[in-house]
Amino acid sequence: MNKVNVVGIGPGNRDYILPIAYRIIEECDVLVGGKRNLEIFASYKKEVFTYDSNLQGMCDYINDNKNEKKIAVIVSGDTGFYSLLDYLQSKIGKECIDVIPGISSYQYLFSRIGKSYKDYGLYSLHGREINWIDILKGRKGIFLLTDKKNSPSCIAKELIDKRLSKVTMIVGENLSYEDEKITIDVPENIMKQDFSVLCVVVIENEE
What we know:
With 207 residues, the protein is α/β, with parallel strands linked by helices.
């Protein structure tokens, strides 16, 4: 039986994809992933399955083909940080999966601002509801994956509404791409700005 490879490809730029990830992808017959991630490997001329938002369809395809074909499921960032790994293991079986790590967005952003992330909470608001306000109160700071609903501007507004405006926000936009932008400012100013969909946020309490 072929193992299904779940491969993390980092923040987006080819330079941040690990050599082992390239090797595994070269050895596979089929690449499964979102359109943006699959475009990186278009020159490999592999069979592809684009799952978009049809996760059950993706799992059905993998289960139907994994015995005859070597499959790599490509995920952004690191496989262990709010990726598809848990879902795939529940649908395909943990014993059927090999995991190849990647560089996470929080690793990348903290390296760009020259800071350690060991004292920060690491969370995702991507399709999730968490009480990050209370979490922030008890930590040096937090890192948040965002989505359309929980944009940097909305996060800034919530900070102001909760009277937590005495913090610093760091917005990482299009990380590792040519149009990368890192904005460091107070919530009042962040709230007035527009950002791309590909954003992450760090919120730091005043020391």
